[in-house]
Amino acid sequence: MTLITIINKNIDSLIPIIHEFHTRVKKHILIYDESLDEKKLAQKLKNGIKKIQKESVIELIEVDEDSKNDLSLLQTQLPKKNLFLNATESDLALVVLLSGFVLQNDGSVLAYDRFDNSYNKIDKKGFTNHTIKNNLTLNEYFAYSGYKKLSSNKTQELQKREAQLNFIFKAPQKLFLTMHTLRTQKHKFLDSSFKNALMGLKVIDKKLSFTKEFKGFGTLFEEFIYLKLAKYNFDDIMLGVEVMFDEDLEVYNEFDILAIKNNHIIIVECKWGEPSSANEIIYKLDSVLENFGDDAKGFIVNIQQNFNHFSEKNEFVKKLFSKRAYSRATYNNLEIYNDYLFNEAVFEELLQEFLHVTRIHDKKIKNQSVFLLGGYDLEMVEIKKLLQKHEKPFIDKKLSWGAKLSFYQEIFNKKTHYYGIELLEDIPLPKNYIAIDHHNDAQNKKSSLEQVAQLLHVELSRYQKLVALNDSGYIPAMKAFGATEVEIALIRQKDREAQGVTQEDEILAEISIENGKKTNNIFVVEAQTPHFSAIVDRLYEKEKNILIYTTTKLVYYGEGIEFLVKKYHKDITKQKAYYGGDFGFFGLAEKKYLPEKVEKIKKEILSLI
After folding, report:
1. pLDDT reported for residue 597
2. Which residue in 87, 165, 560, 575 is deepest, having the highest Cβ count within 10 Å?
3. 3-state secondary structure 232-285
4. Tens-place pLDDT, residues 266-278
5. Which residues lie closer than 8 Å to 261 by C-beta, 6 or more apart?
6. 453 and 506 share a domain?
7. 440 with 535, same domain?
8. Are residues 313 and 174 both part of a single domain?
9. How many domains are contained in the chain?
10. How far is CA 464 from CA 281, 383, 397, 480, 489, in A?
11. Range of 602's domain?
């Protein structure tokens, strides 16, 4: 086949069609305007095609798009058999002229749709749409675009470091404190588990000095994020990439992470700690995106400390990216993850919505039951252990509380039977699906751990029974069972740890309680930590009614829960609110309400109970 391509200023839009048919094309004809810019673009594309399609014949044809004579002569220069025209975003006059010629000679006119990663095909039979099958890798994209990859980091050995990287970055505030401890050489305060992880990563040696191999925590953070992203279905992904855009002018850039999905380039900027300026990061990323076409995207990942450990005041640090920065980023096709901790569920939701990628899972599990794990707490940890012990298939996305069924959507098939454990049903249920839960309308059921044990026909140990009671009825249920104070304290501690509560959260819980006050027989606490369990555990024996809130969520523990369930029944039905613990608590799901609405409901509860 002969593929005729009309050059335009955005050759990124032309490349997908060229590559889609690269195994079939025997000859390329590149038509370009006489302007110097288009001539350079045509030559660049010719060189790129030659790198990928070494056997193809490539012919360049220069025309004056404003000359009737040139346009008339053009048709005489073209063959008349097996013609395909790549007319994507090209000069209208040339497209009209050449489309008529190609169709008259039983050829096809093609146009790429970059939003759907598909192409429209017009021939004498009519109009059809086709999905691109041969998506580009990064190296192929570089070749076609005339770019040169100077270097990239090797990633084959990274998985061996994954557990240690996960350990230190899943508790970022503890890591910031550890960094401060190392730099100030206050080694007696160094956490032993962190010390072992940092030694394993060759950050420090046995003398607790930084090693020669250590390149900085920023580099480790890039590796951590790369390993997270590598679990998603990008067409290609690279770490630590240096790209030369123009060899003559020596224009090049370094990228933390580069990925490509459906022929769209994605740049990931990893920022550990507190970079100098949010606007500077956005501006820099926006400027380099221009090298990758109009549909390129940028993703900024920033974990920052919430306290300035280097200040004598130990002052709270505001989030780096303001609402204005987020708006500017959105306008420039950028997304931002900026937080004091790494929440895998929130991170995944951003990736799915912005980059349209999904996790890679084993789709070969068929004709058997598969358990889908929900948000992490001690009960979910014990369920996972039980499934592992009895060798039952399960998929664990390591989600946090409020986990949704849609997080597993891409793995569903009609032959597999699924058990979803404490997953919010935000999408139509798969064909063979059973929910395991004991919250909201299901609170009269046994705990999820007991339901799983029943399915597996196993007896729970005393410890597992206490875990189940803790989840379904909290401390009162464990006391009624006859648990000792030591057992209760142990279960509550382990539950908080499973939820991701750090030592710093425990300190923030104490601070939150100190600033709490009693209103209408309810002890009200504005939480300084997102983990309310660290607060309520400290207040349970002291206060009968407790209300804990932030600007994005709220939980009330105490009397009158049944009344609140009736009053906010519509919100519960819409999965914006929830209750459980044998009418022991009522809460507003995180980020389902604006701060003003959270404040309004808080006042309503205080006046109603």
Report:
1. 95
2. 87
3. ECCCEEEEEEEEEEECCCCEEEEEEEEEEECCEEEEEEEEECCCCCHHHHHHHH
4. 999 999 887 667 8
5. 135, 233, 234, 235, 355, 356, 357
6. no
7. no
8. yes
9. 4
10. 48, 9, 23, 16, 15
11. 502-608
